[in-house]
Each structure stands twice: as C-alpha cells, then as structure tokens.
Amino acid sequence: MLVAWKLVTFEGTLKLSNKFAIAVQFVSKHNDYSWNLMNIYGPCTHDGKREFIDWLKSVDFNQEEDCILVGDFNLYRQPENRNRPGADHADMFLFNNTISYLGLAEIPLQGKKYT
C-alpha cells in the first residue's frame, strides 16, 4: 500500500500501520482543517476475511473526526460488484453488516471520474 501527498498542501502524521491498513491524519496547511485517511488492503482467504472484519469492527473511529476509508477490501456489497460470475452471499452479508455496524456511507466510484 502507498499513501502519498503534496507536502505544500498537507502535513501528514502516521496514526496506524498494520497488516490491514495504513492510516494517516492530514492537516491542511491552508486552513488547519484535519481529517483521517485509512488505506485498506483486506485479505483474500476465507479466514483472513473474518480476521479482517473482526479487526475493522474493533477500530475506534472518533465520531468527532472526519475519516475516509479507501482501498481493496477483497469483499463486495453486491454480486454485480464482482469482476466474474459467482458470489459468496455470506461474505456479502458480513461486509454489509460491518458497514452498517460502523455507520459508514459508501461513495460509489466505479466508472466515474473524480479529482
């Protein structure tokens, strides 16, 4: 995983680094606004996915801080999100349940341009 930024725009402080994620707190050099970015890479194996979900549910997200999670979760929310036929409905339920449990909102990016 790589997290990179322009030093003239943001100051970044590493908050977390483990086998699932790198989290950085950014502070704008223009207005001192602060927010957190968590870059995630979830495992591909059945047991690894369960371990990842347990870890993700245990992360203490401060409700007072803005945070965005990005990355490759190796889980999907709907069968249409897969790049090949077949879907593990138990994995989908687990992932959707975790997103609800954490109170996260998804921003769909597939097939769209963002800058």
Q: Care to count the β-strands? A: 4
Alpha carbon gap, first and last residue: 20 Å
Number of discrete helical segments: 2
Specify the helix fraction band.
Answer: 10-25%
Write down the Rg.
16 Å
Element-by-element helix/strand order: EEEHEH
Average pLDDT across residues?
87
Q: Beta fraction of the residues?
A: 25-35%
Seen as an oligomer or otherwise, the chain set is single chain
Task: Look at the helices and sheets and give the structural class.
Answer: alpha+beta
User: Which of globular, elongated, flat, extended, rod-shaped describes the shape?
Assistant: globular
Most strands sheet:
4 strands, mixed
Question: What does it look like?
Answer:
This protein is 23% helix and 26% strand. With 115 residues, the protein is an alpha+beta fold. It has a domain at 40-106. Strands 1-2-3-4 form a 4-stranded mixed β-sheet, with no helix packed on it. The relative contact order is 0.14.
Element layout with pairings:
Layout: E1 10-17, E2 21-28, E3 34-41, H1 46-58, E4 67-72, H2 89-102
Parallel strand pairs: 3-4
Antiparallel strand pairs: 1-2, 2-3
Helix pairs in contact: 1-2
In brief:
The model has no long low-confidence stretch (mean pLDDT 87).
Give structural attributes.
115 residues; 4-stranded mixed beta sheet; single chain; alpha+beta
